[in-house]
Amino acid sequence: MMILAKLNPAIINHRFLEHNRKDQTNPLQQKHQYHRQHTYKTTERLPPLVKVAVNSSSPSNRQASSSVSAASCGELVDEFDPRYADQIKNPRDFFTGRLGNVEYLVCRDEVGGKVRAFHNVCRHHASLLASGSGQQQSSCFVCPYHGWTYGLDGALLRATRIAGIQNFDVNDFGLVPLNVATWGPFVLLNLDKDSFPQQETEVGKEWLGSCSEILSNNGVDSSLSFVCRRVYDIECNWKVFCDNYLDGGYHVPYAHKGLASGLKLNSYSTTIYEKVSIQSCQGSSSDSKDDIDRLGSKAFYAFIYPNFMVNRYGPWMDTNLVLPLGPRKCQVIFDYFIEPELKDDEAFINHSLVHSERVQMEDIELCEGVQRGLESPAYRIGRYAPMVENAMHHFHQLLHGHLQN
Ligand code: FES
Ligand SMILES: [Fe+2]
Fold first, then answer.
1. Is 150 near ligand 1, meaning CB less than 6 Å away?
2. Which atom of ligand 1 is nearest to the CA of 122?
3. Number of domains within the chain
4. Distance from residue 103's CA to the centre of ligand 2 (Å)
5. Cys bridge to 63: 59, 134, 243, 334, which one at CB 3.0-4.6 A?
6. 135-181 residue pLDDT tens
7. CB 104, CB 119: distance < 8 Å
8. Residues 6+ apart with CB under 8 A from 198
9. Does residue 187 form part of some domain?
10. Are both 203 and 223 inside the same structural domain?
11. CATH number, domain at 171?
12. 109: closest CA among 122, 90, 128, 124?
């Protein structure tokens, strides 16, 4: 599952500047983490997207407005904190996390199995209430500082040693709630004031717009089992990674020869929605390569502006979260899910992951090369290939609008 918070510039700035991410406390991440470390040697200016003209692309850093700083790059990016269904499958299951300066606690209540979310902050003296994730032994959270105790619904059940206190009503000191909803395999947190709609279909529409049904109908659902996480630190601006994803398969025959043999590249199509683009492609009918089983008869790749991807192919789904770590560095978190009947097929899983890993390495090499190219004095502006790079152009248009605001 996934946590999503809507845009909150103050929070995002903070998160963007938070370079040391090694203290994250997701046990699944610890268990499966794969880090590709690079030396981060300089602080070049962000190659910005200062202007999106029809059919011209990728202004280089030579066109950089000095006002476009590294921090503004972070401001554009929604905050995500990927989590998994398994973590709150049962009553009293919970997980905690941080989105910018918002410490949150998500749990499943015993009453009706309702998913609840709160600020993970004790109302006494602001201690963090819970930490990590797991299942509570009892139906409450006890503050580790002075023992104030809260129910799974956030109510203050017990305030210790408050005899003599005046003007105090326990009803005024429950945990501060956060808006939470689930959609398919994801849990969404909304840090804006507005609450989520009640119906899951409406939640999907709010998050994904008119394509939410398409994702549901193409197997992005809660039946999938989490397999593992891979984390890649890449020496490129976060937008370079997104651009690479959004070129309509343009680079596939040149840079991913193994993958190309598993796809019918002439069937590649791109559909643009409000803030989502979906690229799709049929699997190859030839039986020449191993990737065919992994990719199935159809693959689709959904980009959810500005930095989240959902990929569904064969029995697999993976999600990619792109986090800016600096003007020329980002981190990409891959979470892999599989259809439940294959979740114990270790051989197939390992085989697929090896193939996927190869594709990621090929993409990383491309992205890091593009980053260096953008910094070169030779590059000023590129061109869009109109037949294939529609999703990239859509991304740039949204980004341009965002930068203008
Ligand atoms: S801060 Fe939680 S009980 Fe004092
Ligand atoms: Fe690629």
1. no
2. 2
3. 2
4. 35
5. 59
6. 999 999 999 999 999 999 999 999 999 999 999 999 999 999 999 98
7. yes
8. none
9. yes
10. no
11. 2.102.10.10
12. 90
DSSP secondary structure string for all residues of 144-184: TTT--EEETTS-EEE-TT-TT--S--GGG-SPPB-EEEEET
Which ligand 1 atom lies nearest to the CA of residue 147? Answer: 3
User: Where among 188, 210, 232 does a domain terminate?
Assistant: 210
Note the ligand closest to the C-alpha atom of 142.
1
CA dihedral of residues 244, 247, 253, 254 (deg, nearest 10) = -50
pLDDT in tens, 19-66: 223 333 333 333 333 333 322 222 222 233 332 333 445 444 433 332
The one-letter amino acid code at 189 reads L
For the chain, the farthest-separated pair of C-alpha atoms sits apart, in whole angstroms, at 80
The residue to mutate among 122, 128, 142, having the most atoms of ligand 1 within 8 angstroms of its beta carbon, is 122
Residue nearest to atom 1 of ligand 1 (CA): 125
Angle formed by the axes of helices 346-374 and 238-245, to 10°? 120
**CB of 92 closer than 6 angstroms to any ligand 1 atom:** no
CB 17 within 8 A of CB 203: no
Q: Does residue 346 form part of some domain? A: yes
Instruction: Answer yes or no: is 85 within a domain.
Output: no
Of 160, 155, 153, 150, the C-alpha closest to 128 is 150
Radius of gyration of the chain (CA): 22
Residue with tokens 């503004």: 72
In the three-class reduction of DSSP (H, G, I as helix; E, B as strand; rest coil), residue 123 is classed as: coil
**Which amino acid residue places its CA nearest to atom 4 of ligand 1?**
146
Examine the fold and report which residue of 166, 186, 210 is the final residue of a domain before the chain moves on: 210
Q: pLDDT by residue (tens digit) across 66-95?
A: 223 333 445 555 455 666 566 788 999 999
Whether 1 maps to a domain, the answer reads no
Structural domain for 289, as ranges: 22-80+215-404
Distance 77 CA to ligand 1 centre (A): 33
pTM here is 0.78
CA distance 246 to 279: 8
Instruction: Specify the ligand 1 atom closest to the Cα of 146.
Output: 3
